[in-house]
Design a protein that fits this description.
This protein has about 150 residues and is mainly beta. The chain has helices at about 30, 45-50, 135-140, and strands at about 1-5, 20-25, 40-45, 60, 75-80, 85-95.
């Protein structure tokens, strides 16, 4: 068994935090079989696998049921066929992770000259800020979120 994990996205008609993402299942082909001459097919159920009714476009598959609702996690059934017609079956579990929902923090303000030992010129418009002091405000209690700052 394999697992494919994506963050929730707003692609192909879905919205952020709806538990739906668009998977390119064929990216797993090399993990499933080392022989590129083998044919790999993906199915939404064992019944579809038994009936040889594969997913029409495995390069843009969304984890939804027939009503369009999210199925998260979702098992996808895989058949690998050799040139001689031998079949091997396995599964891939699709998992969509929630997208963080950061809060815009209140402005970080500091008086000129309050930026530390090296900041001796009180009218140069330069001070040092502790950006990480806003982490809790930005995260708002959301678990498993890491913040990175860029200029």
């Amino acid at each position: 068994p394999f697992e494919a994990i994506l963050c929730d996205d707003a692609a192909n008609g879905s919205t952020f935090n709806d538990g739906i993402s668009t998977f390119n299942l064929t990216l797993s082909n090399e993990l499933i079989t080392l022989d590129v001459s083998n044919a790999v097919f993906y199915y939404t159920s064992v019944a579809n696998q038994d009936a040889n009714n594969p997913i029409a476009d495995p390069t843009a598959y969304q984890n939804v049921d027939v009503t369009g609702a999210s199925v998260n996690p979702q098992d996808i059934y895989v058949s690998v066929f050799t040139a001689a017609g031998c079949e091997l079956r396995t599964t891939i579990t699709l998992r969509v992770l929630p997208t963080p929902t950061p809060t815009t923090p209140t402005p970080l303000e500091i008086c000129d000259g309050d930026g530390g030992i090296d900041d001796i010129d009180f009218r140069d418009g330069i001070s040092q800020f502790d950006l990480e002091s806003k982490n809790d405000e930005i995260i708002g209690g959301e678990p498993n979120v890491v913040i990175a700052y860029y200029d």
